[in-house]
TrEMBL record, chains A, B:
PANTHER family: HTH-TYPE TRANSCRIPTIONAL REGULATOR GALS, LACI-RELATED TRANSCRIPTIONAL REPRESSOR. Residues 3-57 form the HTH lacI-type domain. The lineage of its organism: Bacteria, Pseudomonadati, Pseudomonadota, Alphaproteobacteria, Hyphomicrobiales. Transmembrane segments: none annotated. This is Transcriptional regulator. It comes from Sinorhizobium glycinis.
Length: 343, 343
DNA sequence: GTGGATATCCAAAGCGCTTTGAGAGGAAAT
DNA sequence: ATTTCCTCTCAAAGCGCTTTGGATATCCAC
């Protein structure tokens, strides 16, 4: 059943070369011959062996990503959503991914292995940290890559796609300040990730411009699961002087925070304002919250698609994309933000 | 920098054969020679080219999965969680996945392509439907595969891992009946998927054994996103004779349902009971709901790991696993279930 | 010392594809 | 008729690895 090039050529009474050329769109082949070849491919169900193709061309038609994983580590819903974007775009070009799971502390070795294996044409990086060692490493390995996010410090000349996290949280904070809030809490992502650091910076900057400082007691860092949103919020509310507004780094965190607020008997949008960053997760829409959530929005899925486009474009040598892109998140005001109480 | 076998052999003053054998653990190589080779590998950072290896052996050391995707289709959080399980196990054996995105209506062709490409040793299947055409197809292609879930109808002799959905929802329904509930609603997954059908069957069976029938008006099918849980529940509550209990096919659906119940001013566990199926999604734990959720629990991630184990075991010819496994979901009673009101 | 194991190692043949460098044939130009 | 230039096709090399089928050397027993 499974035919290979040689057999196909035999059936057609042609040489492998000609068949190969006909298939790969080389000009020096008769239109009629090409048709015959294509017809035979249809009839036999011939599919080129990718491994052989790869060995011959050096191209793998696939992009590699390292999936952070370990027995204790929770799967990240954001990762899945991003993947969906990558996938959506890749399918158009008949590309696939090679997903290489790896424990975080083994990530460097995994990258090295992946790059050397010849299994992938390009790599994708995320979960950037300050002075991320993977960037110089990949540059040294001279394999194309695109980063989702940005490192902080270290070399600056690498291809990335990021959203302007500082700006987003600056905007959000400013809105709260204008509404009269002074005690603003932040339920942020893990403190070792670059985006968290930038978001906090945005908050800090807005507060300082307003003549206020950050209250470190009102800043929590954690993995983005609703459980932590709940705990952090509960913690904040138990303070002698609780915040009147809270910023969440994800709608998932907001989910927990909202629960804590409800349980405390407070009204969202009047007693306390909530703003979350919305990655546009289809299963958790801010407009569906009991009180629709004000958000800074930027589609993770769109980012995935865009990165796939750039990566693939780079591989097949088509398209010329900017090396560095910084998307601005949109501030969308809904009912969860209102004037500070007592004003 | 990137050394290949030939160069490595040259450096060592050995033939490629010997080096290859030393690396692959063949017995006919001197222990001392093997050490020398391994040392050289360490020094040079030699990595075998997978494509070449694949071409020579026919083994790809990777398993393929088709990721259902399309511009309009939402990413499924359950998919990500399952993937995490697969990954966790695969990383131990240095396997990776080839993720092939595909539009649902193109799935068959994608499978065929994937199988013929030689890129993968085995395939993984999920989102089973009744009489799923992919099963006979893969059998015909004679490529190893394992199904997560089970089809309904069609051939029965194929390798799968499933949870006993009928049993799980039978158990859950029975609990509700024992608590005195008679009007029991079901917010189920998509009606074209086998697991949904089985879950409904479990509910039906329990009701019938109790001398009751299913009220089709109280059964909704939808994608598993909180939005639909909310809508369905709201819909049920607006009926003249609303249900006193509801079963949800996912904690994600329950999230929406709970919101609708809260909004209606009803108390969970007394006015209305809720049971959800819990796939053990780390970002959404039933014990963290404002009223902890009674659930039927079965870890999606564990299923992923188990399937990876079986798939990989089959490929490297190690281990002998049962072809078919049916896991039983655990019924865990929490505060969201209580006696039917007025009893 | 000779035949037969045993232990080590090697040359070479693929695996299925792309691609280089040429050859064959015909049309156009001289 | 010869040369030049296309157009179309082909044989063969090579991608980096595994594996078959020896070759060589060593060692034992008889």
């Amino acid at each position: 059943m499974a035919v290979n090039l040689k057999q196909l050529a035999e059936i057609l009474g042609l040489s492998q070369t000609t068949v190969s050329r006909a298939l790969n769109g080389y000009p020096e082949v008769n239109a009629e011959t090409r048709q015959r070849v294509l017809q035979a491919v249809r009839e036999t169900g011939y599919r080129p062996n990718r491994a052989a193709q790869r060995l011959a061309t050096g191209k793998a038609y696939s992009i590699g990503l390292v999936m952070p994983i370990a027995p204790g580590i929770d799967s990240d819903i954001h990762f899945g959503e991003f993947l969906a974007g990558l996938a959506e775009e890749s399918v158009k070009h008949d590309f696939h991914f090679v997903l290489n799971p790896s424990a975080p502390d083994d990530e460097e070795a995994t990258f090295r292995r992946l790059a050397a294996s010849g299994n992938v044409d390009a790599l994708f990086l995320a979960y950037m940290r300050p002075n991320d060692p993977r960037i110089p490493m990949l540059k040294a390995l001279s394999i194309p890559f695109v980063v989702h996010g940005r490192s902080i410090g270290g070399p600056r000349d690498y291809p990335f796609l990021d959203i302007d996290n500082t700006q987003a949280f600056y905007d959000a904070t400013k809105l709260l300040l204008q509404l009269g809030h002074h005690r603003i809490a932040l339920i942020n992502g893990p403190d070792y990730l670059a985006f968290s650091i930038r978001r906090k910076k945005g908050v800090t900057r807005a507060l300082e411009e307003w003549g206020l400082g950050v209250d470190e007691e009102l800043v929590h860092h954690s993995v983005m699961a609703d459980e932590y949103g709940y705990r952090s919020m509960q913690h904040f509310l138990e303070r002698p002087n609780p915040p009147t507004a809270v910023l969440c780094s994800s709608t998932v965190l907001a989910l927990g925070a909202v629960r804590a607020i409800n349980r405390a008997g407070l009204a969202i949008g009047s007693d306390i304002s909530v703003i979350a960053h919305d990655d546009v997760l289809p299963m958790l829409k801010p407009e569906n919250f009991s009180v629709p959530l004000t958000t800074t929005r930027s589609s993770l899925r769109a980012a995935g698609a865009r990165i796939a486009t750039r990566l693939i474009g780079g591989i097949i040598g088509r398209g010329d994309y900017p090396e560095q892109e910084l998307w601005r998140a949109e501030l969308i005001v809904r009912a969860s933000t209102g004037p500070a109480p007592g004003r």
